[in-house]
Structures are given as C-alpha cells and as structure tokens.
Amino acid sequence: MASSSSVDMDPDVARRLFEEGATLVLLGVPQGTEFGIDCMSWKVGPRFRGVKMIPPGLHFLNYCSVNPPSCGGEVGPKTGLFLSLKSRDILLANWNAKEEDLDFSASHNEEEVNRVRTNLKELDPYLGPYPYAVMRKWVSLTDRLSEKVANNLQPLCGRVRAYSDVIPETEFRHTKDRAEQPRNDTACQTMREGLDKLPKMKHREGTQLRFSVIPEKTYPSGATPAQITQCSLDFTYALETVLDQNHQQNPLDLLGELQFAFVCFLIGNVYEGFEHWKRLLSLLCRAEAAMQKRKDLYLGLIAVLYHQLGEIPPDFFVDIVSQNNFLTSTLQDFFQLASGPGMDGALRKRAEKFKAHLTKKFSWDFDPDLEECEPVVVDLPEGFTVD
Question: 47, 113, 278, 355 — which has fewest CB within 10 A?
Fold first, then answer.
C-alpha cells in the first residue's frame, strides 16, 4: 500500500495526526487484495497491516479479494462497509479466508485493543497513512450523510456488496416440490417464457440495502381524476410521503440518502445504488409545490449534485444515463420549475448558476425544444366536427 499521501507533510502535523487520528489494524489481508478507504484504493503489499491517521467521522471501507496469478488473478466483487470513527479509535479485524471478508470481532476484546494501542509505534511501519490528498473530495460527497442515516440504510449484515446475495423463494427440500416446478427441457419461444421458468429469487435476509420505499403511485388512494392528473405532473405528494415515512424528524436527511446511494454506486460498484439515486432525483426534481415550500432542501440538493456530477467523467452519461436521456430531461424539468413563479429568489439564482455550470462542463442543452411544445394539428375524418 503506497504512502504517498504523507509526502511533504509537516512532521509536527504528521505526529499530531498519528496521535489523534483513528487506526484500522487489519491482519492477514492477502497480498494483492484490492483495498480502499473512501475515495482511494490500493493493492495490498506483503507488509500491509492497516491504515493510520484516519480523521474522525464517517468512512467507507471497501475491498476485493484477488486470486493469485497462478490461478488467473481474477478480481472478486467488491465488499464495503460504512464505519464511524472517533479520535484515537483503534479498530481490529482479521481476514477470514473462507468468507473472503474482514472479521471485526477482535475489536470487542478490550484486552486485545489495549495491547495493540500499547504497541502502536512498533506497528507504525506496517500502517499506510490515510490519503489526505482526497479527503476534501470524500467530505464533499458525504457532508449530508450522518452516522445515523448510514446505519439505517446499510444492510443488517453490515456489508454493502456489489452483487446481490439471493436465494430461491422456495427451498424445494423434497423431490415432489422440484417436480412441480416448470420444466426447462423444452425450447423457450420468448424471453418472458424463459424468465418464467427460472426459480423465483429473493434477497438473503439481512443483505439488502434499506433504502426508502418510493411509492409506485404518485397520488393518494381515492384520488379524483383531477388529483391524479395534478399528482402525475407534480410529485410533491410522493415526495412528502417518503419524507414522512423515513425522514420526518429531519427532511434534509433525504440528501444524506441521496449521497449514500451515490457512494454505494460510485465506490462500491452497487448498481442498485445508481437506480435508487435516479429515482430519488426524479422525485425531487419534479415536485413543484415542495420546491416552493422546502427552500433549504433544494439549495442543499444543488450543492450535493454539484459535487456528485463533478466526480463522474462526461462519457459516463453517454454510456449509461443517456440511454433514456434521464439526467438531462430530469434536470431540465428541475430548472424549468425553479425559474417559475412563486420560487424563492435565492433558489432561482442558484439554479441558474448550476445550469450554466453544467451547460459549460458537459455541453448539455437544458432549454426545451419549442417545436415539441407547439399544438398538434389533427385532421378529423369527414363528417366529424368539434363544438
């Protein structure tokens, strides 16, 4: 693990960080393992024993097991976990070769922790320094994400995994159970037919991310046709439902959830995080009444998006988002609403600056196509009239 982040650091600053920062002692991590904390990752060398000088706060530890070169050197899927560390904390973990995961149970052994603390200076040459060069980036991506929100969203098993840990909905313990399932010995005529023959799967209990549930219907039960139309144009009802059910005490925690989802995708390689990020963003950007009511939430949203979009290369959107032109169409709606009547002046100005920034950075055009807004002329069949 490289230690370039400590180059040119003042010795007194380095000493204070060593004494006051938190320490992760990670024993037995195989050489070649891809290991990262926050926005930086490395390949583990033979002397690696952990990370020192970690600033207090929330961090995202992540790692991938790697087969030795003799076995092909394939890299496994990424595993991550959010950790909240305090000044002078020492966290111990041992590598579990069978599970290819870190076991933190040693951190609960006070005697073992005290022994490591006593010998910390002897362990120092084997500890890589926290990458302070990218600390500003990490803080900008998680400044709205509290320890409480991260703990509520992280799977109960404590691991954020790049792959879905799924099991069959039915166990099929008996031959009779298996015999009653659709057979796969005949050719399928359609993709749907093939999917229907596969066993129904579900997440293994405790492994799924616990994101807020976004209502499938954007309108309340028993809504009139006029209300359904209104709620389909203005997503405020659906947004307020999410806030009431998940972030009632602090609505701004929804921005923390947006950041959690983005970090899971950007660093943890969790595609589910990207999908939830898109759904939350669509909800926020199309809630006109909420935009008028919750100025602080939307000023915060612009700041969050500014830093998130700054971390993704422009061609990323060409490859993924622009399949349905998701981001540009969503932000186009947001900018149009933010410039409308009844909006706070500070929010309107901030949105205009953000729009100009994105237009310059990505060459995106957020101005609506006027031709698409023109009325459509329909030729009626002979004999039909419109009163």
Answer: 47
Residue 21's contacts (CB-CB under 8 Å, 6 or more residues apart) are: 52, 53, 54, 55, 56, 87, 88, 130
Q: 103 burial class (0-12, 13-18, 19+ CB within 10 angstroms)?
A: middle
DSSP state of 375: P
- Distance from the Cα of residue 116 to its chain's centroid: 34
**4-142 has which CATH code?**
2.60.34.20
What count of other Cβ atoms lies within 10 Å of the Cβ of residue 29? Answer: 20
Give 77-81's long-range contacts (Cβ < 8 A, gap of 24+): 77/161, 77/162, 77/163, 77/269, 78/34, 78/161, 78/162, 78/268, 78/269, 79/159, 79/160, 79/161, 79/162, 80/159, 80/160, 80/161, 80/264, 80/267, 80/268, 81/154, 81/158, 81/159, 81/160
Under a CB-based contact definition with an 8 Å cutoff, are residues 226 and 111 in contact?
no
Cα-atom radius of gyration of the chain, to the nearest Å?
26
pLDDT in tens, 331-383: 999 999 999 988 999 999 999 999 999 999 888 888 766 455 455 554 555 55
| Domain boundaries defined on the chain | 4-142, 166-203, 225-369
Q: What is the 3-state secondary structure (H, E, C) of 29-96?
A: CCCCCEEEECCEEEECCCCCCEEEEECCEEEEEEEECECCHHHCCCECCCEEEEEEECCCCEEEEEEE
Low-confidence ranges of the chain (pLDDT < 50): 2-7, 319, 321-324, 370, 373, 378, 384, 386-387
Residue 158 CA to residue 84 CA, distance in Å, equals 13
